[in-house]
Amino acid sequence: MYLTTGMLDRHDDDIMLETAVCKVFCSEMGWRAVNDAMQIMGGEGYMTENEVERIFRDSRINLIVEGANEVMQSFIFAYGGKQLAEHMLGVRESIGQVYRRPALLKVAIPLAAELYLGIKPRSPAVTMVDASLRPVGRRFARLVRDLSHNFKLASRYYGEAIVWRQAVQARVADAAMWLYAFACTLSKLDRNPNDPAERDAAMHLFDLAEHEIRRSFREIFQHTDESMQSAAKSAMAQIAQLPNSDYAIPEASPVARGTGRKLPQDGIKRFPGPVTGSPSVDTQRDIASSPSARTQGAGGPSPSPCTQGAGASSPSPCTQGEGRGEGSVARHRDEGRRQKTESEHFCPLPSALPTRSPAPRRATM
Q1: Which of 38, 156, 230, 358 is most exposed by smallest CB count within 10 Å?
Q2: What is the pLDDT of residues 159-199, one digit of tens each?
Q3: What span, in angstroms and rounded, lies between the C-alpha atoms of 340 and 359?
């Protein structure tokens, strides 16, 4: 990420590919890290006070928002391979003009040798690194050459069908992302190659990256995509026979919006506030049974339980127990906006119910 932001600071003309790689790779690695943390902590990880469960929930959305990772993988494949694909197409379309343009042979023969005989070109040279890191640089250069080689082989093997083979595109994109992570780590290590902790972590990343890259290369051609597609078609045909009214249908569905079953809302935390609609029966019952509502007709309105105690003798239920290890809401009141919001949820709604009160909003925690 820091290497890419350096490109921004340098005002490079086009870093769309690098920013897309950062989005996918960082969100994926962040999710893996918090998922491992949850697994290590076990059941304790689910406890709110340990904060991991909040990070767990928040981290998962990063794989979806700002371009779902699967969409970005196709973008990385297409945009990153655009120049090479156009070069290959140009050679293929011009092959019949070789007798008029002999210079084309200098391009066509090496490409044909690579595609049909497996003769790879020489690796690029990586020399601007510390002398102790030059073996790593040569390792990186071989992976760069092999990525180009496998992209060419995949283009020849799948032909025009590669345009819709998204699983294949994702494997090529994954190899490219790990290669970029390799380059970024090598660049950072080159600034301080003698730090033992930095070096050990970087060497593990290099091993992990090469392992993942080689696996992606294999799976470009050795996979289970055909049986996956058959199973998916059968599953979709079976699903089409089921009634929508028995299932939860996403609100954003372009073809079935509003046809699913009504989802229960009882277990969802709600915030008081002005929104459109009218209050549910459960909300009205909760308001009517609140302490402030019960005392409304017995001498006028009373202060809200959330504010009484600010100048009265009796402590507020939202603050009592503070300092004695009691009252989880009070214990977390000052720990941030989310905890404050939760404490507001546990306080009863205002005592007076307007004639046309809006419905409570669904909490998005």
Answers
A1: 230
A2: 989 999 999 999 999 999 999 999 999 999 999 999 999 99
A3: 21
